[in-house]
Amino acid sequence: MAPEKIFKGIPASPGISTGFAYIYARSNFEIDYQPLKSDEVEKELLEFERAVELSKKELKKIRSLAYEKIGEKNSMIFDAQLEMLEDSYFTATVFHRIKTELKTASFIFDDEISKISGAFLNSNDDYLKERFSDIKDLRNRVIRNLRKEKLVSKVEENSIIIGHELTPADTILFSKRKVKGYATDKGGLTSHAAIISRALRIPAVVGMKDISKNISTGDFIIIDGLSGYIISNPSEHTQSEYKRKIAELEDYERTLKDILIMPSETVDNKKIELSANIEFDEEIDFIINTGHCGIGLYRTEHLFIEESGFPSEEKQIEEYMHIANITYPNIVTIRTFDIGGDKLLPRSEKEDNPFLGWRGIRISLDKVEIFKEQLKAILIASKDKNVKIMYPMISSLSEVIKAREILEEVKTDLDEKKILYDRNIKTGIMIEVPSAYFLADELARHVDFFSIGTNDLIQYLLAVDRGNEFISGMFLEFHPAVIRAIKYIADAAHKNGIPVSVCGEMASNPLATAILIGLGIDELSVVPSVFPQIKQIIRKVNYREVKNLCNELLKCSIETEVKKMAEEYYKKITSEIEELS
Ligand code: PEP
Ligand code: MG
Q1: CATH code assigned to 5-26+152-247
Q2: Which of the 8 DSSP states describes residue 471?
Q3: Residue 180 and residue 537: Cα distance in Å, rounded?
Q4: Which bound ligand lies closest to the C-alpha atom of 455?
Q5: Which one of 175, 401, 477, 577 counts the least CB within 10 Å of its CB?
Q6: What stretches of 380-522 adopt beta strand conformation (E)?
């Protein structure tokens, strides 16, 4: 028997399964370069029309299957492909070029599609790069139909599909065959195949480089979507290890489901608000299907990616209304644009120090009309009184005052137009710049809540670039300065009667949960994937105990001492929780 082999990739959708591999090789349909004779043009135009119609029909079928399996939001991927085929300007251009250039429909269509896909491929943005494969899928579909070839999928039920690349349509169509996993050579976390696998709850590993060449159809394999492994010819020992892991995972998932409906409070009944950080569409499903919780941080920057620039007021109203509706009756905290830094800049010049540059509220206050549009859209979405506004990158009180004046102007404008909104909408600020920490007491008198952005606060406090892997070991959540800053901010908030949350990644670190509670944090806004786990920890914490622990911890002057105390408490409370690995 062949020896066991382990292949590593990017874990893209959690879960573990075992099964037989099916290697899926998608054909790249050839185009016909033969020039046309003028009496062949009419027939070619009809052939193109027929291929477009057939492709639309196929896409509509896939879309309705997707709708049924993964919901409306996720199936919108197919709308984008359909829209392109329904774009009369696009098809008219192809028609016109066939007639005037006497070239085949496949040649012209491919050429027109390449113009669009080229722009995506050359983008520096991962998300846009991934859209390239969606367009390639559309190209192959139409050219296959021009060649009158059928779509073949002979995959056996319960297989693990392995391919160089999978399109969203492949992922959806294969799921009809009860597949047990997907693994691809290419792709990243934002590839649509990865997104759909997560929505379908099918384990997936992407970016495996050459897995499709190393595994053959019929090989017995294990796919581990949690750690990103494919194991071929697993030994007896590996198989029994994984049997145990699968059983544990099933148990764990059952426990987590139960946990979701339980209150978020410590053993001594201190309520800790637990909410989610949401940025992308696929995360919204978590609110609808799993968490049914509030959103402590709704990042609006994704609208920038989708609209390649400042989104229109209409688009924003639609987006914020949607998020407010699905969160209702829970609260959604919408953060105004935090562009700049490592996020998209609305201008071409690069700054030498973007993290210390034109970013967040600074851009909003400079571009007042754009800021007003965003505030207006947020206010309109607040009509059911479940929306809060939050400003990022506040570094001085004058920014808060200026933002409030602008908000008041927008409110007056809405009043004049008799447009409904929440008059008492709560406005808060992110505390993520050291100057805001020093001014916390004054700032707290001017806002309704604080939210600590530990990602930036740590970066600015410790002078450690959050995205620089050379110094990632210096990005210390348990640094005494960070712990003391959090305590000081929480105290300043409470002294002035306002609540304080943490929405940076530290809130999603299970090791930090008890400490943050002990430091006085009222709300944790976490990434959806750890939501149940953090709830489980909150329910094991004893508030009185962690408050005392934090008093000790605040005396520490070395990071390792803080971390050791945090670990010890974590071990103590989690020894009762069944651990995963
Ligand atoms: C933070 O800085 O901690 C935060 C939540 O904001 P972002 O990561 O979007 O900068
Ligand atoms: Mg930040």
Answers
A1: 3.50.30.10
A2: G
A3: 31
A4: 1
A5: 401
A6: 387-391, 426-431, 449-452, 500-502
Active-site residue flag, 503: yes
Tell which CATH architecture fits domain 38-146. Answer: Orthogonal Bundle (1.10)
Q: Which of 293, 302, 503, 556 is catalytic?
A: 503
Exposure string over 549-558, b if 16+ CB within 10 A, otherwise e: bbeebbebee
DSSP label of 287: I
**Amino acid at site 8:** K
545 and 565 in contact (C-beta within 8 Å)?
Answer: no
pLDDT at 480: 98
Ligand 1 is surrounded, with C-beta below 6 A, by: 297, 299, 338, 432, 453-456, 503-504
Which residue has better confidence, 468 or 311? 311
* Residues lying with their CB under 5 A of ligand 2, a single-atom ion: 432, 453, 456
The whole-model pTM stands at: 0.66
Sign of the CA dihedral with 97 first, then 99, 101, and 103 last:
positive
| Spatial separation of the C-alpha atoms in residues 299 and 332, rounded to whole Å | 11
Q: Is the pLDDT of residue 415 over 50?
A: yes
d(CA 384, CA 417): 18
Tell me the per-residue pLDDT of 110-168, one tens digit each, with 9 for 90 and over: 999 888 887 776 766 666 666 777 788 888 889 988 988 776 556 788 899 999 888 87
For the CA of 502, the nearest ligand: 1
d(CA 121, CA 115): 10
Tens digit of each residue's pLDDT (9 = 90 or more) over 469-489: 788 889 999 999 999 999 999
Phi, psi of 318 (to 5 degrees): -60, -45
CATH superfamily of the 270-580 domain: Phosphoenolpyruvate-binding domains (3.20.20.60)
| Residue in 485, 500, 354 with CA at minimum distance from that of residue 430 | 500
